[in-house]
Sequence to fold (227 residues):
Amino acid sequence: MIQLLPSTNYPISIVLMLEVGEMPEEKFLNQTYRLETQEETLAHYEAWAETYDEEITENDYAQPKRCATALAQYSTSKEVDVLDIGCGSGLSGLALSDSGFKNIDGCDFSPAMLEKAKNTNVYRQLFLADINEELDIEAETYDAVSAVGVLAFAHIRTEALRQMLRVIKSKGLLVIGLNEHYWDGDSVGDKIRALSEEGDIELLFEEYGDHLPGADIGGWVAVLRKK
Ligand SMILES: C[S@@+](CC[C@H](N)C(=O)[O-])C[C@H]1O[C@@H](n2cnc3c(N)ncnc32)[C@H](O)[C@@H]1O
Fold:
């Protein structure tokens, strides 16, 4: 409500008064870091799908481009089959397409997000999948998998890395982009190094940089090659 009040300094001063209940709604981004269960996570993305692109791009979301660029650097061709896991509204697929990749499939567990991803027209096919469950994809189907902003406590768990690797062909690539909280807190960096020591993968690239610079959040990009 706008109230006009007389003032000693100015003939009239305008005071903006927000009544209880008129407080601006909290945006979705902050809520993301408080999600605890799969059910909360799914409900969150179903509700966020409509405004996700707007909120995330106003914070200069850097990971899709960083991940696509890193993948392009190690990929032998742009004709390879890429699966964008947790593709969301398609920002990660758009970045892959901008980097020249032509055969991009996408999957996510949120139907509303997949509807948004369809509108980007960069995916060859899109399908519903919960990456914490067994994936209904034959082993060694893809040349590369991209997982941008999806590994997190209540999202896709670190254990799913093995599942991602299962669907990648031998010598294929996995690019991961995630924010610093999960890299450290969920020991994703340690898990990757353990996979490397076990001899399942070769860690080709690991770089700290921007994640959501508009919200002052940094993040990691890693490129792994399956042995
Ligand atoms: C932060 S968004 C990232 C979307 C996209 N990759 C991007 O960079 O804009 C996280 C996405 O992961 C999806 N997601 C979370 N948990 C998942 C799960 N267990 N299986 C599949 N998708 C999941 C969400 O629905 C959401 O679309």
Notes: Residues 57-226 form a domain with the Rossmann fold fold (CATH 3.40.50.150). The CA atoms of residues 5 and 13 lie 6 Å apart. The longest helix spans residues 63-74.
